[in-house]
Design brief:
This protein is an alpha+beta fold. 35% of the residues lie in helices and 41% in strands. It has a single domain, classed as Nuclear Transport Factor 2, Chain: A. It has a 6-stranded mixed sheet. Strand 5 and strand 6 form a beta hairpin. It comes from Microbulbifer agarilyticus.
């Protein structure tokens, strides 16, 4: 697939994630997908690696802990064959009264039209302060 086609797969996945469309997301994820959140300590619920079931559970968890889900705005793109890099901003109004506003960089590997790898770089302290305190 071309870089443009791979970008569309990634865009569609993030739209499904934001809408908590787990069926739509599942259709875009490779059965061997992994999502690695790059928290240094590994003690946060989102640090470390998730498989397909973990990703779908994360989608549900974010939706259940927020008033209207997580709004994602895709800002900048870099395309290189199977490698799709995207800078994004996430915004959610949480059930605990806090506002979650994070910036991310994702490196996504798309293989045969499905997402095989996600590598997330974001502010894990923002996650701790909003989700865990």
């Amino acid at each position: 697939m071309s870089g443009v086609a791979n970008r569309k797969v990634v865009e569609d996945f993030w739209r499904c994630f934001s809408a908590t469309d787990t069926d739509g997301a599942r259709a875009l994820l490779h059965e061997d997908v992994t999502w690695r959140a790059m928290g240094q300590q590994g003690g946060l619920p989102i640090s470390g690696e998730m498989d397909l079931d973990g990703i779908l559970a994360l989608m549900q968890s974010v939706r259940e802990s927020s008033k209207d889900g997580l709004a994602l705005k895709m800002l900048e793109w870099t395309l290189d064959g199977e490698r799709v890099a995207v800078e994004m901003e996430g915004l959610a109004h949480m059930n605990n009264g806090k506002t979650y506003n994070n910036r991310y960089h994702f490196l996504v590997i798309v293989h045969d039209g499905k997402i095989l790898r996600l590598r997330e770089y974001g502010d894990t302290d923002q996650v701790r302060r909003v989700f865990l305190e």
